[in-house]
Design goal:
It is a single chain. By secondary structure, the chain is α+β, with helices and mostly antiparallel strands. The protein folds into 2 domains: 164 residues, PAS domain (Beta-Lactamase, 2-Layer Sandwich), CATH 3.30.450; 76 residues, no CATH class. The chain is built from 5 helices and 5 strands; from the N terminus they run H-H-E-E-H-E-E-E-H-H. Strands 2-1-5-4-3 form a 5-stranded antiparallel beta sheet. It starts with a helix and ends with a helix. The relative contact order is 0.12.
Length: 247
C-alpha cells in the first residue's frame, strides 16, 4: 500500500514538474515576443523618420520591400520568431522570418495562422496598445504579440509570432509515467507473491505445531524462504533443547 502511494506521489510530482516547465518556457517566449515587437517598432520609426509629406501608397512594391527589410533586420537575432507589419484595411504589408530553419528564406505569411494574426493586429490597432495571445493545439503553444506603430499610416501595427513545442517533454513524461507504472506493477506482484507464499508456510507451521504432544514439538521442514527458515531453525532448536531438558 505504501509503495502504491509513493508511486502515485512521484507521478503527481512528474506531472507538476512538466506543467511548470512548459509554463516557464511559454513565459520566456512571451517576453521574447514583446521585445521583438518593440524592435520592429524601433526599426519602423527609424525608417518612417525619412518620410516627408502624406502617407505613402500602401500598394507600392518598394514600400513593401523596405518594410520587409526592416522586419528582417529587427528579427535577425530572435531565434524562432517570425513577424511583420499589418494595416487594418490593406492587411499584411511586410513579413519576415530570418531564423527560419528550412531551406531558403521564408517570405510567405503563414496561411493557417492568418486569421489569428489578423485578429491580434486589429485588436492592437483598435485599442492602441500592445496585445498578446496564446492558443494551444496538438502539443504546442502558438504565441502572438502585436503593438501599434505611430506615423502617417493609420491603423498600422507590428506583430510577432513563435511556437513553443510541448510534445518532446510530454513524450518523456509519458515514458517516465509508463516506467513508474510498470515498476509499481512489478513491486505489487512481488509483494503479493511473497504474502501468499508466507501465508501458506505459516499455515503449515501452525498445523505442525497443532500436532505437538507430550513428547514435544515435531521438527519443522524448511520452506525455502530464507527469513522464514531462520525462524523455523530457531523453533526446531528451541524444541530440541526443551526435549533435552526434559530427559
Amino acid at each position: 500500500m505504501l509503495s502504491l502511494i509513493a508511486c502515485i506521489a512521484v507521478g503527481v510530482l512528474l506531472v507538476q514538474l512538466y506543467q511548470q516547465s512548459t509554463a516557464a518556457r511559454v513565459g520566456r517566449a512571451e517576453v521574447v515576443l514583446a521585445r521583438a515587437c518593440d524592435l520592429i517598432r524601433d526599426r519602423f520609426d527609424f525608417y518612417a523618420g525619412h518620410w516627408r509629406g502624406s502617407a505613402p501608397d500602401l500598394s507600392d512594391a518598394k514600400l513593401h520591400s523596405d518594410l520587409a527589410a526592416a522586419v528582417n533586420f529587427a528579427l535577425a537575432r530572435e531565434n524562432g520568431v517570425e513577424g511583420g507589419i499589418w494595416q487594418t484595411n490593406a492587411g499584411p504589408l511586410a513579413y519576415a522570418y530570418p531564423t527560419y530553419a528550412g531551406t531558403g528564406p521564408k517570405t510567405d505569411l503563414p496561411v493557417a495562422e492568418r486569421d489569428a494574426i489578423q485578429a491580434v493586429n486589429q485588436e492592437a490597432a483598435s485599442n492602441e496598445r500592445s496585445v498578446g495571445r496564446r492558443s494551444v493545439s496538438r502539443g504546442q503553444s502558438l504565441l502572438l504579440d502585436a503593438c501599434p506603430l505611430s506615423g502617417p499610416i493609420p491603423h498600422l501595427t507590428a506583430w510577432t509570432m513563435t511556437r513553443v513545442e510541448a510534445a518532446p517533454d510530454f513524450a518523456r513524461l509519458r515514458l517516465g509515467l509508463g516506467v513508474l507504472l510498470g515498476f509499481m506493477v512489478l513491486i505489487t506482484a512481488w509483494l503479493g507473491r511473497a504474502l501468499i507464499i508466507w501465508a501458506r508456510h505459516i499455515r503449515g507451521i501452525e498445523a505442525a505445531l497443532a500436532t505437538a504432544g507430550a513428547e514435544g514439538m515435531p521438527a519443522l521442514s524448511p520452506t525455502g524462504e530464507r527469513e522464514l527458515d531462520r525462524v523455523i531453525e530457531a523453533l526446531n532448536d528451541a524444541s530440541h533443547r526443551l526435549m533435552e531438558a526434559r530427559r
